[in-house]
User: Fold these one by one.
Assistant:
Number 1:
Amino acid sequence: MENIITKAYSVKYDAETTTVYFQGVMRLNGTEYVPIKQLLNDILEVDHPVIILNLQGLEVLNSSGISILGRFVFTVANKKTIHLIVQGAEKFVWQRKWVLNFKRLMPSLLLEWK
Amino acid sequence: MIDNSNWYNSLSFYGFIGIVFFAILLILGIVSIMTINGKELIAVESSKVIEQLGNNAVSELTIRSSEIAALTKNLATISEQLPKSVSTFKSIIPKLIDFRGDFDIAGGGVWPEPYAFQSDKKRRSFFWARNLEGSLIYYDDYNKVGMGYHHEEWYVAVRHMKPGTCSWSESYMDPYSYQPMVTCSVATFDHNAHFSGVVTIDLKLEGLQALIASVQQKSSGYVFIVDRNNKFISFPQPELVTQLDLNIQGTPSKEFMLASEFIEPLFEPLAQALDMMTQDILRHARDQKNYNPSIATTINQESYKIDHAKAELLAAIIANPIQNNRTYLYKTVHLEQEWLLKEASTAFIFHVPHSYWKLVIVKPNSNINAVASNISRILIFHIVATTLIILGLIYLVYSHLLIRPLSQTTQALQEMGLLANEMKFEELKVLEIPYTRFNEIGLLIEVFDKITIQVIEQHCQLKTVNKALEENIIQLTQLNILKDEFLENTSQELKTPLNSIIGLAESLNEGVTGSLNASTKSNLVMIVNTGKRLSVLVNNILDFSKLKHNTLELQQISVTIKELLDVVLTLHQSLASAKDVHLINNIASDLPPAFADENRVQQILHNLVSNAIKFTETGYIVIYGKVVNDFLVICISDTGSGMTVEQLQHIFESYNEQESLSSHIGLGLAITKQLVELHGGRIWIESQIHQGTRCYFTLPISTQTETVHTALLSFQELVVSPPENMTSKTTILCVDDEPVTLQVLHNYLYLEDYHIIQAKSGSEALHLIENGLKPDAVVLDVMMPKMTGYEVTKKIREKWKADELPIILLTANNQIADLVMGLEVGANDYLTKPVSKDELLARLKIHLNLTHLKAENMRMGAELEVTRRIQQMLLPKAEELDQVVHLEISGFMAPAEEVGGDYYDVLQHDGRLFIGIGDATGHGLESGMLALMTQTAVRTLLEHGETDIKKFLPSINGMIYKNVQERMQVDKNLSLSILEYKSLSSGGGVLYITGQHEDVIVVRNGELEQIDTCDLGFFIGLIDNINDDIAQTEILLQKGDVVVLYTDGITEAVNPKDAEYGIERLCHVVQEHWKKTAESIKNIVIDDVRQFMGQQKVFDDITLLVLKHK
């Protein structure tokens, strides 16, 4: 499982805490999201009791990215065996709106605001 | 050189300014002093002038009176001595009185004491007076009865005076001539020295008038004289100071009045001053030793005509109390308003000696001051003019002797400086500046001249030496060029045969001519290795020559070191394995790419790795990299023999002098070092003998986000991927004039199962093509006689484009210029000879693949174009929008380069108005299709009579979900809001909103409101059922209210600094312009967004819909 690090953004997975850290500005096109989607899918291959999505450093995420995250949340919700925690930052406007949508996709999702 | 030639920087200018400044100061000083103090001083001086005038006049009067006194005295002496005979007296005395016809002398006489001339006669006087003709006429009047003269004032007083002195009478009107007159009396004495009588001379005062007039003329103002009793003797207007009186005969006659009798209040101060003077005379007389107060009494008793006061004055005068030494000016009186002049004036009162008359000069102050001003003005003019002339002269001298020579010297030095700057030493010359021979400047010039002469001499010598040197240099340069050319040409010439040797040996070894025994194979390997070493040496010589002449250009791109190193290590693997040396590529896969010339980095790595292998007998060579600041640091570490400190010091020198190393290293490290430095990096080595060597070099990190995949792709990557879509045997056309090269190419390609067609010249190749040959790729030598590879490429390109038929050029010159030229004429790639088999195969494969990919790309481009057109075609037309009754609607949509999935629509159905806005995630055809499906679904629902917009969304969601997730199998969904407008009978209308999309911006009467649609719906197409997520809200609209709908293409638009446009800015712009029409608001917002984005790429579709209630 390879971390994705570029100048503009990074997606890192900490296996010990099963946390995915999203950081920076992600304004990518569909194909650029493929490795990220892969990373998220790889995490789901192992049965983790808890997965944490840390978005507190994610300044911008475009609609394609939201779609990826939405699908991830939806997949986790359908599995019904994983606790999903989303750690957001209220200072980023897009998160306030979209994290609530994730909650709708997965009502058991736990939201933690910074 | 500093240019000091500006006139305002010159000494002359400073000097001039200094002089002008000094002159202004001096003139200001003079003028102010003259104005403040000068006038007073000059006024005093002006008074002095008047004093002098008065003194002169008094002197003249005194001279006249002394003259008369002398005449009278003379008359007295003669009359004392004449025999007392009437006839004698009558004949002699008139002659004396006539005084050579002096007409001012009105008359005179001899007046003896009673009975002194004739014992029988009490009164026996002799008196003559001039008639109108001026003849002296004898008068006997005083001897007649009733008359008498012994009591006359002029007779009484003189007897008390010192013998021989004249006593002047007070002025009177002559009874005969009716002219003002005074009389000078001198006492006579008999031989017993007893007083025997008096002689008199009468002086006409008319003569004084001329004197006074001349004084008056000089003084302006007026002048008058009073006698000792302050009785006027003269006055400019005599009638003012005369009064009628009765004369001796009892007839009225004019008589001068006393000053005190002049009843004019304004004259009073002057009259008082005159009286005060009389008082002074009396007082001073009392202090005199010779003063005899009894004389006054005597005189008073002796003459009934003399009152006591006059007698007292006479007695005082006899004591002569006023002695004048320096001046006759007795007193100055300031008169605030002078009676005659009618202005403030000053009266100067002068004392006339002997007669005790007073000469008074009255002068208006204005006149004194005017004189003073006049004098002051003249003085100022003179002083200023003199000052200016002196300063001018000083400046001229200063300029002539100092400034001009100095500025000339400076200019000359400056010119010489310029000449020296331009190295024109032969034009230097000795300075000649006038007027400097004996001063310091002259000395300076002399010193400078000596230096100049020396410079000129030195220069001449230098020129001679230089000429000789230049000739030497030319010779040497020519020799050097010859040497370089020889080296370069020889190297070039060596390359092709060398490549052929290597190629042939390799293909022999591969078994082209059938199987070989082990010994032959091992010998062939040696031939290949030796050939390759020789080839490296030849290339090094060429590179060294280029580096030396700075003609080596880098083509810097993003280079992934790990992959490049893989290629290098693969090439060295056999050499290393033979020595039991392990090559380890320990570079992390996430090490950022370098910004470097790929070929040159490969060369650097090649040199360093091959060096490391050379000096390592056993163990391993590990290469790793890390990031330090903005540079990659690559380390090649070996377990070899290491180096001594001394060896380290000379390691990078070309043709190292240390034999042990040079034979092994040659030019390699020197070139490596220069190549690294050409990239802006540096190289260094750490080593200890027997402890291995670590060679480090740095390269700049690439700032490009994507690695540029040029034709020179990574070796392994290419080898791994097989050519796709090649159903039949692939045909390769090989063109080269060298049969050996053709054979090498054939050997390589034949083994890979390519179909090979050979051509021995360009024209042959073209001929084949013209006859219908369509190869899949062409491998083409550049340097061919008659027709070069470039020309062949050009011809082929006339028929097929680069993406239709790849051409790979073969060149012995691995120069950028060749590459550029080759690519310009349309080649796809180039390979340098000797052609490595693996590289040739890899390149061929990638280009065959690329041809395929290009076709794919074109398809995608067409797809995007179609999507863009569908998107635009589905937008509501302007006429449709104009038909909307209650709302003014203006819409805008601009697709992004890669076409996003924006959607908006305005539909009227059965008198109802629906507005939809949405945004599908992602870009490209699928996103566009999603928008299209949504539009169609909304329209279909309306056509089928669905009236509840809350039911729209679940239906659309179901349809989209099934299409996207089950059929298209793409990760796409969309946000979508559907709005319906209903007008109210009470005026205005309601806008119902459902579905989740961006916030709706509403401006009511200038007040802004943002309506969050988050809770009104959910993503469309993400989950199969969103029935529970749908809600509806409504907005009341009045006339003029504005509603703005948009997609995130606007709020997430970024500028070149990566800042987002944002909802706040959008709201601000809308609120600022809400009063304008929907069309204007739309245009203003779009302009503002575009201005904000500048040159930045448009990432997403931009959609804006402005509604305004009519």
Number 2:
Amino acid sequence: MSESIIELVDLTKKYGSFTAVDQLNLEIRKGEVFGLLGPNGAGKSTTILMMLGLTEPTSGSVHVCQTNSAENPIEVKRKVGYLPEDVGFYPDRSGWENLLFIAQLNGLSPKEATERAEVLLKRVGLLDQASKKTGTFSRGMRQRLGLAEVLIKNPEVIILDEPTSGIDPKGVQEFLELIVQLSKEEGITVLFSSHNLHQVQQVCDRVGIFVRGKLIAEGNIQSLSQQLFANEPFTIYAEVSAAQSAKSAGLSYQLQQLDGLISLQQNGQHFQLGCSANISDKIARTIVESGAGLQSLYKREHGLDDIYNRYFQGGDYA
Amino acid sequence: MHNVNLTLDSDSVVEATATKQRKLKTKAIHPFRVLVQKEISDQVRSWKFIILLCIIALTCLGSLYTSLSNIGHAIKPNDPEADFFFLKLFTLTDGSLPSYSVFISFLGPLLGLSLGFDAINSERNRGTLSRLMAQPIHRDYLINAKFLAALTVISVLLFALGFLVMGIGMLIIGLPPTAEEFWRVVFFIIISVFYVAFWLNLSILFSVKFRQTATSALAGIAVWLFFTIFFVMIINLINKATMPSQYAPPAVILGHENLMLNLTRISPSTLFSEATSTMLMPSVRSLGPLTMQQVQGAIPSPLPIGQSLLLVWPQVTGLIALTVVCFALSYIGFMRKEIRSR
């Protein structure tokens, strides 16, 4: 196991009586892509701000690259690139000028800055448009320029706060591929906050689910679904034909008698069965034997969608 | 006529960019300097600055014109200020257009307000604040750089204008200023810089407090209007209400006069006009009421520059104090603000 590069210990942030981040413990390892997943207002951005030392924690500690963010934010910000949500640029300056400005704030000489900027602009595919004013840039171009700017300081960690909101699907795809590529090639640790689960699922090695200031689950997607759906790891959907739907009352009774079935929901012709094992064959047989006319039957594996729904829409967190 | 070859071959262009690349400095510039440089170029390029610059330059030339066309009649026999002929360029008027110093007291606040009203909140609204704060710089660099950049722009502008008036005046009337006149003008310009810096800091304070640039601009203009129009009216009302009877003992009348004078000195524009008129009119001997006994036996001669400076010292200190208070408030406000994206 590689060393941890971000360490949060009992991190708490209160705004008056409102607790934005509550006793958060999290460890992110070097070189991984970590997804911070949660609905809006869950405290993701606050946590990120505390990692950068932009906000002081009420209690607890943050260490990024073995440096305490609250005590030495400058040192942390030297090593961490941060792309805020909906990043803005000086609209009447060109992409070049914006990029060179940030590069020089990071202590690069004008010559170095120009050289690096050219490489990075090529990398994010903006070299042709970089001399245009950023006021004319589209949202996706701004995000790509933002990524170039984050990379110009040669960071060890990059933190992306909702980087894909407002970009079209193709742009998102390209952007995410770029992030994964970077992480793999240059060994940069990426922390990626989002409320969009599909994107997180696509790129992240590990995911932390964040609700109301608490990290309620953490791990890769497989282990998360195992944790969550330990008692009913399989969901099977079945549809019966409409003509025989009158018989479905009897059918649902029969299905409930099946071994391994945990839950059953019926909606007209549709059945949703939560099972402890893959008992598709038994279900199919039961339906066929009941004469209900099986239309379709499929088994679904748990993705982040289900994990997400379970946490946010169900139980105590709804 | 020379024949100019307008076609560029690609080699020469490549070479040109290569030399440009080579010319770039290989030494890193301190981040604070980078910030100040950027702020200055932002200010100078902005439309609001160009527009104000045009207005100020025009009015400056206008007042110069009126003072020059009247300067011939300005010299009277036994005038204690006859030795300070040159200073009349800044104060003389025929009544149709105000003098240069009055223009500065009127337009200076506008200049200060316009340079600062969107200092912090526009960064926030454009979403560049959190981006800047994520760079390895101290947080106060930003507000210090904003202040320093605007102050630099103001100083350069006012010194350039002041010296321009002096230069044009010298060309036309053909008289060079004496050393004392020169220093009086320099002090006048320095006091103007402080005055404009006060309004600049006030507007920076509003830009920290209010999220919308329009709100902070209007708040700044409201304060400016209050002091230029309503404040005088309020003072007049108080004056009428508390006026002692004309048979009251002189001590009471004098006390009342002094109280009224000190009340008007709450306004920064009073402080400025007192300070500048003392600097530009060496015959001004006191800024408060004088009794007959004090005036008796006084020779109507101009004050030396050191004495004039002593006379306006409280006013200048007051202006600097106001400036510092505004800056301190905006500094604290900014340091306590939480940096969030948009």
Number 3:
Amino acid sequence: MELLNLFKRSVSGKSGINELYLDHLRYIKLLENTRIIMNLFGDGQEKACGEYILDVHYVTAMVEETIRVLGTLVFDACVMRNHGGDALFHQWDDQKKRAGKILLSVQNGSWLQGSSGNEDPEYRLLKDVLNWFDPEKGDKKSSVMGFVREIFNHIMTRTCTVPFPFTDMPALAIPCQGIVHRIHFLPVGDETPLSGKSSVEASDCRPLRVMFRDSPQNAITSDSGLAHVRWAAVMNGPFMSLGFREGNRILCQVDICLSGERDGDYVFVFMHDRMIPEPLIPLEFSTSKINDGILAWCYDRPAAVMDDTLALLGSRLFSTPLGLEQILSDIRR
Amino acid sequence: MDMKNIKIMVIDDESIVGKRLKPALEKTGAQVETFEDPESALAHFYENPTDIVVTDIRMDKIDGIEILDRVLAKSGQTKVIIITGYATVEIAREALSKGAFDFIAKPFKPSDLRVIIERAAQDLTP
């Protein structure tokens, strides 16, 4: 579903819900742009193996697209967290300078000099660009991928001033070792997120059905005497976003797109260090450490693998204590 | 038609293309000539028409569409395969409507082009 159509969908008149919904949409867009950067890097690495016929336009187009998408990422990140963005803009300027040097070398022909042996200058230039991407090949922060990590460092520490979540919303309750995960669903459009005991299986939202496919228990329950961990979820066509906060701070966020299209589907996870993440993340995920936690992502897999991976993540996430008792205790304090 | 009897002309002003394609296409058994200058290529073609012409679409002096027009005007039997770049797929579609046999987008593997060339060779009348 096009993002523009998602924007057109109405949400509840509550301004707080609107704010959460817009945050959800901005984050989807940010993830899609991040994926473009990762695809550019991956495609370049494949081409650099030497089996391809490519020309210098392929490399310059890659550089230009990278700068364009990085600019969009920076802008969206600064909208999502509206303070402290100056450093990102400075770093983006540095990235533009780096890209500008590469493009200038093509314009003035200097890229053709210095070729050695059998290496074609196009391949040498491509390797230079890939070195700019790769945090392992130079200064980690000045690389493109290092900069993307900085952008996530920025947005994952954004705070949410909206009272969170809204306890009068429909909720899914999952008892788990002395606590209850209560997942509150934001109303979007005409959909009633959950309306009965069999709602998860009957839901139109595929990410929801798949994520709780293997969960030991999922039922709509009334409040019990157990401590509650309150999650907020947005189901939106093929997308689902699920988040848990401690006060204003994000502790866990899972964003999913399951459309059945391999090129578009992903599961993206942020887990704060307090959530003891390592045993939770299935092996299919790639991970990267950022300041306060880890990012984990899974994409470009067959639909069946995506389903199994998401079901495994859901089952682990909602059947593991996650250090939540301590967190709940801190929240009460 | 037997590939050993096929003559292929490759025209691309990026030297890497001819340099890498020549040995890769010669593996099919065909005879391959490469040109970086499209004017020289056309002059050579008028004297010695080839069965297949593989041409880049974006070149400074003469673009691939003009190459296509002139080649087909000289030899309607010749199969013309267009190499497109990043932003020229629309132009490649135009080329197909003007009689190009097929097109391939850069970056590509030589083996992908070989498949198209073998298909073009089968389409040639002996």
Number 4:
Amino acid sequence: MQHIPLNNTQLQLLVDGEQGLLFCHQRNTLHKLEPAGIALLLVMDAGVDKQQCIAQITNLSRQSVEDIESLYWLLSGLYHARFDADVDANLPPSNNEPLRQYRDSLYFEIAKRNAFRTDRCLASPQAKENCPEPELLWIRIAGLVFRLCCKHQRLRTELEQIFKPVSFLATDVAGCAEFAFEIKIGKHAPAISDAPDSESLQFEFYSQGKLIATELKFNQVAPVLIERIQILTYQASGFRFCFHGAALSENRKLLLLPGKSGAGKSTLTAYLAKRGFAVHSDEMIAFNDKFDALTIAMPIAIKRGAWAPLENEYPQLKHQPVWQLKDGRDVKYVWPDDDISQDTSTTFYSDCDSVYFIAPDFTTSTQLKSQAMPKEPVHSRQLTVIEMLELLIRGGYQVGHELSASDVKDLTNFMDSADRDVLSYCSSEQAFQYVKKILAEK
Amino acid sequence: MNNNKKANDAVDNDELTPEQARRQFIKKYGKLAAVTPLAVTALMTPKTSAAPKSCRPNQQNKHCPPESNGF
């Protein structure tokens, strides 16, 4: 990445090949610029007036005056830190909406915790009173204790099975928790809670006494609960950035598998876990200030299409209950290693010598055959820092505090020092062989 | 950054004054603009920073319905 100094000290411009990153200090926002935007910004920054800016770039680019003028207005909004510019999230401007801050997207449990520094023993004591010990489940992840109250016996038994490697007795955690959850049967449910047709019941999910999800079917409860725990865990960790993806390591090498849901991250993670890789997280790549990755000991969610291919690695898949994500996909949960208790202390993995971003792009062999252009079964492409950053962000991301120029600089430097590839493949074995080869090269 | 080294070489000259370097950047990127999109893309803003979830609105994921709010 090359830094281009600007006269406007409220902006920071970095270029990487043909593309640029523009950080706006006043708005705490980061934007991607294409070549026309970079050129136009530099002319604007030299103090040239609007007409001349447009004329100069139109001349060089041979694009239409109207197109360059539209671009000028967008950039002018950023350049002069006008908050009405419609470049925020590419959404139409809303004049009545209050300005958001990054901290606004932290979950309410975290905001409350940060504000009051609540002692874990004081977290929602009323829930403890309402729920006798046999109906409680105590879970410890990354040094945090979650207390779950569930009066529905069958559901509680199923949840106990899922969380077995990270479950504790109340006495192990001194009967105190940072977060108190409760799963209740919905108000309009049949009177007998343990009726054989549990599937017809609807459940409500409360966190710290507040209703956060309703009308959940029996088989939708675990995915909601697991997602809430994962998110609260990284948000409570003092994270700097979090991206959607998996984090693994092997021999002091950190392997990050970012991307959108459905790209093949979890299946590949489960496959690599049986081939010597330690799994730090299946869903969230959370970094601290030093870009160490947070370990969130949770089961891996295996989607329906991967149950058969992973049966050799995880024979227990055959007998696991089926859960359903809100989007309708069926999943089963497996732990990378069922035989051992998971490390439940606060851990950021700091022991690595090198970092690899590999964005999985799984294609079934049927899909491959149906594509018009022939494609290699395994194909990798190196990405620039900006391309990988965009891929990470599109998969889902969160910034832990108000974004600063040093955050952007440190993140791009970190990514610059890492390997960055997108990997297309048809089977986990192919991806494993590729990963093994790449990791052995350094 | 091997991919990008070539692109940056055109203006990697220590002997240029800042003004000359700026002019060279403008020329280089202005010409590239003939064959690249005219876009400014918001990457990180307070509006888009949110807990990563399996399904998010407008994620354009084949597995996620467009109206999904992922809770």
